[in-house]
């Protein structure tokens, strides 16, 4: 079945360009468009897309709030959000990731990267290298807790090994790098990551990295 995509951007020309790129792929179908966050919410409810390609800065309702409502508690469907941004390290990207986005992509990214991003996010993965997540969080460390807050109770549900894996995810290591660091197989690492996501109620590695920072498990700038 084709991946159902909803395009959300306040610039019609950009939506047209994205549509042309995506509709050239046999496994992707653009099911609708929206010019702002409010329209996006209506379209998500009506069309049930698999992936929402979401601009951040829009009138009426921005992409951060729309993402929060699409992916938050009580959401109407399984739609995943891939955020589009004009500038690398956009100040709103961190908020979008916290809100539930599965990753972000620059608007001027090559067509093949856009297509691949749609496929990766639709498959339930994060279209954002953990190293980039860390760079984002380090840059905007002032927006994060100081680390002196009480450790969330949910963190205590993890085993020592799972906490160790979570720290490495937040540091930007890939599964292969984590496996080498812990002297285990990549399959074992994937299992641990899966357990971390399930126990903490997180959607993907992006949210796991954000959680690690916000809980104080990993401090901005720490190695």
From TrEMBL:
Classification via CDD domains: LuxR_C_like (cd06170), REC_NarL-like (cd17535)
Positions carrying 4-aspartylphosphate: 55
Matching SMART domains: HTH_LUXR (SM00421), REC (SM00448)
Keywords: DNA-binding, Phosphoprotein, Transcription, Transcription regulation
Superkingdom of source: Bacteria
KW ATP-binding (keyword) present: no
Domain HTH luxR-type residues, every copy: 151-216
InterPro entries xrefs: CheY-like_superfamily, NreC/VraR/RcsB-like_REC, Sig_transdc_resp-reg_C-effctor, Sig_transdc_resp-reg_receiver, Tscrpt_reg_LuxR_C, WalR-like
Stretches assigned to the Response regulatory domain: 4-122
Protein name: Response regulator transcription factor
Organism: Streptomyces kurssanovii
